[in-house]
Amino acid sequence: MRKDVATASNEDRENMFLTLAVEEAYKGVESGDGYPYGAVIVRNDEIVASCHNMVVRNTDPSAHAEITAIRQACRKLNQVELSECEIYASCEPCPMCFGAILFSKIKKVVYGASAEAAVAVGLESNIADALMDDNFYEKVNLEIKKAQGSIAVIAEQVFENTKDKFVLP
User: Which residues are catalytic, by number?
Assistant: First the structure.
């Protein structure tokens, strides 16, 4: 366990990991790998995977940040179940990513920006539309938390700050 994490409050801890996810989102756009999404997977306060969207680089529409992080974490831990892990995503997971999170049995999701922040700059609206159904998250046994305060604002700013740097399909 990292010393700085061990002494942090739960909110500070979550904000620290979300900040890393937002940094990954910026890396993805700056490197030309994909769109402004990042994800960090943590087990026992140790980072197992830290990834960004790789859709463009891999020519793979499934290479979302959360999927890429799950793949990396599973390889690193040599297991397909991540039930001891948490995922921190810069933005609300889309239905595909949410499905992968469920199948990998991750125990907690914390995200920064709402799907609507991505839609506001022209990214896929079907993600937000799917999430509008109030029952979407209610049928699963998983803790899901939307970040509040300055980290949520920072996570949402990644879209506005990078919208001129990526080309929409």
Answer: 66
